[in-house]
Amino acid sequence: MPLWAVLFSIFFLGEKVNIYRFAAIVLGMLGLGVLISGELGILKTTPLGVVFMLIAAISWGAGTVIQKKIEWEISALSLVIWQLIFGGLPITVGALFIESYDWSEISYKAAGSTLFILFIAIILSWFAWFKVIKILPVPVFSLATLLVPILGVLSSHLLLEEPIGWRELLSLVLICSSLALVIVPTRSSS
């Protein structure tokens, strides 16, 4: 995803990619490649899934650059809420017709978890993301998204006791090196 965002930002925003940012992109992509290299057999069995992942990554990169380019006349919070309404409402209505629910089985914990996910994990996170998009260059903030799979691996190790092997460790080193390359030069130049 960061690769597409950076490419789009070069062509549509005129952002410059210095040697540090270029090296960071390469290291980040290598880190992600190492992390998924153990799962290549799964990718071969579902080639259409690979196509959809590629389309999603390109869409995310394009959407990120569009979000940065447009000077919105509404606040970031309003923008997040409108996007959730336009994106979430059709999905919710469709789910009500397609799925069958026994509403009496929904616990307070499940309802509370759903509200937490909606307000903290989605609205607050997207609000923060939209703010970061306006402040930082695309290569810097887009590479930070590479921490997501690293946090997933670490969380699965801590919560599910899944083993951490050489792929996960090498990926961690490559991705953290990638982030260091885009953060350190930015600090020294300011």
The secondary-structure element order is: HHHHHHHHH
Percent of residues in β-strands = under 5%
Distance between the termini: 27 Å
Structural class: mainly alpha
Question: What does the radius of gyration come to?
Answer: 19 Å
- How many domains would you count in the coordinates? 1
Overall 3D shape: globular
Number of E strands: 0
Number of helices: 9
Mean pLDDT figure: 85
Could you walk me through the main structural features you see in this protein, from its secondary elements to its overall organization?
This protein is an all-alpha fold. It has one domain (2-189). Helices cover 81% and strands 0% of the residues. The chain has 9 helices and no strands. Helix 1 (2-12) packs across helix 4 (47-69), helix 1 (2-12) runs antiparallel to helix 7 (138-144) and helix 2 packs antiparallel against helix 9 (166-189). It is globular. It starts with a helix and ends with a helix. The mean pLDDT is 85.
